[in-house]
Amino acid sequence: MLSYATRRVLMLIPVLFGMSLIVFSIIRLIPGDPAQTILGTKATQEAIQSLHHALGLDKPWFVQYVSYLKDLLTGDFGTSIRTNAPISQEIWPHLAATMELSFVAMIIAIFFGINAGIISAWKQNSIFDFTAMVIALIGVSMPVFWLGLLEQWGFSLELHWLPSIGRDNIRNAVNPITHFFLIDTLLQGRFDQFWVVIKHLILPSVALATIPMAIIARMTRSSMLEVMRSDYIRTARAKGQRMFWIVYKHSLKNAFIPILTVIGLQTGLLLGGAILTETIFGWPGIGRYVYNAIQYRDYPVIQSGILVIAFFFVMINLIVDILYAVFDPRIKYR
Amino acid sequence: MLETATNKPPVDPQIEEEKSTPLFSEVWKSFRKNKLALIGALIVIFLILLAFTASFFAPEGINEQKLSMRLQPPSADHWFGTDDFGRDILSRVMYGARISLRVGFIAVMGSIIIGTLLGILAGYYGKVVDMIISRIFDILLAFPSILLAIAIVAILGPSLRNALIAIAIVNVPNFGRLIRSKVLSLKEEEYVVAAKSIGMKDSRILFHHILPNSLAPIIVQGTLSIATAILEAAALGFLGMGAQAPEPEWGRMLSDSREYIQDAPWTVIFPGVAIMLTVLGFNLLGDGLRDALDPRMKH
């Protein structure tokens, strides 16, 4: 097990180097003069020269790359052109906001996705099965940004049930400690704010959860159907065991590996979906941080944001791969 | 050599008949039993027709503005209502089908061509070539696809053409990996080993034997990728990184209309339905083709 995990981690090294090289190249591959593109056509020659120097563009690219890697390893992501603040300081609150949103979205997707899949398989060809699978089919094809807009319109602008943008109430803002607002409000015993944070989380997390929920439901159904046809399930039924236990204990355990695969893949993909959801719901996460940086051509922020998201994406995939080997020992021998 | 090739041994007529049964009819037989796949095919055919006939059937031009008619709800004159410039939304949605299908098809064709080429090189020649190409695929797959597309557009600048290039690049590793694994298994097949042993050129083996036998998964993956490509193009358009105003790209239409959602929800509903139906159509068609062409791919 340990050698499999070590091998898998070692395989990550060239990938991480490649990622850093791609992200490093973003600013250098801009057609024409990157400093001119960032500052606009009205910029003075001095301003352009000074940005050249600040970004290190006046040195050979290899020297630039080595110093970029050195900075990264010491946790220095550079300085934002727009705010002039160190990106490593700015990025954490955004990252925490995205992690909180993604975590809640994944909980929703896993809970509803797995249960819908199980009940669909259990009551195969029933009205529930048909309805759940039609909804899942539509869910898979749903553009997350459109669903987000419809949610805002229905539940916020028309019904006034839930807030449409932000993470908390601006007039009664959460005092950040960890920047995970659900945790911060509980730590401070502010249950009123906790409830406000939950209300802010519902619409964006449901939008973000839709696609993974649909995919998890479809995979759970097909995986469960396969297992429920096997001999040991028939034996369990013949012994007169309660169907609930057969489904949730015996079948789910053996149907879980393909479901886990999908959950892992979808958790990573959530980070990509977050950029759209955060833009719609004004969620101050890392996706919106990158989006705003693009609007202001703040390339150091674009680079760091993309690198951080990709790093988490790769790490989630690594954890999922190692978890497979834990759940299915055959995998590590392949 | 020519003589040997033309002197065919006599063939058992029954075997000949079985062999000549075209693959297409078998695939069609299995495909038409699948109702969802048929619905998908119908949606796709309808969209293609819509795209081709937009200039004949669209009630108005793409950018025909009537400010006196701005934000009109759906009516007999304007089935899908009008937007903030008084433009007919139905017409723009119809023209939008052209853009989305074009982006979907061209981007995916680009990914297929580059991915197939790299996949074949990696799988057939192995060793260092395989190592380099496979690592490039790993690195590209290390980014969430929409994020990599955003990074590429950030370099090239926001436009529909650049969004298309970005989407094509992002999907290359999916096809590359698929073809690589197919080539790896096919190159051990007896007929490929035999072709090698009689001194057949690598290019002939690759393009006449290995590639035709890899077509089924490419078709399936290609159809499903069109759905993803259309969704990604719409997402980039929505973020202002793809099509630019006044192009009637569906994602762009959504982002341009979002501020009117409360007063004129139809401006947001119809472009969204169009994206969803198109993606649904290609997903259903792709799933159906997978079941018919290569049932093993299901899991």
TrEMBL record, chain A:
Occurrences of domain ABC transmembrane type-1 (ranges): 95-324
Residues that span the membrane, as ranges: 9-30, 101-120, 127-149, 194-216, 255-281, 301-327
Keyword terms, alphabetized: Cell membrane, Membrane, Transmembrane, Transmembrane helix, Transport
Superkingdom of origin: Bacteria
GO biological process: transmembrane transport
InterPro entries (UniProt xref): BPD_transp_1_N (IPR045621), MetI-like (IPR000515), MetI-like_sf (IPR035906)
Membrane topology qualifier: Multi-pass membrane protein
Primary localization: membrane
Protein's recorded name: Peptide/nickel transport system permease protein
UniProtKB/TrEMBL annotation, chain B:
Cellular component terms per the entry's GO annotation: plasma membrane
Chief place of localization: membrane
ABC transmembrane type-1 domain boundaries: 97-286
InterPro entries: ABC_transport_permease (IPR053385), BP-dependent_transpt_permease (IPR050366), MetI-like (IPR000515), MetI-like_sf (IPR035906), OppC_N (IPR025966)
Membrane topology field: Multi-pass membrane protein
An individual GO BP term: transmembrane transport
Segments crossing the lipid bilayer: 36-58, 99-124, 136-157, 218-244, 264-286
Keyword Membrane attributed: yes
UniProt key word Chaperone: no
Location relative to the cell: Cell membrane
Signal peptide from the UniProt entry: none
Domain of life: Bacteria
Keywords associated with the record: Cell membrane, Membrane, Transmembrane, Transmembrane helix, Transport
Family: Belongs to the binding-protein-dependent transport system permease family. OppBC subfamily.
Matching NCBIfam families: Opp2C
Protein name: Peptide/nickel transport system permease protein
Species for this entry: Scopulibacillus darangshiensis
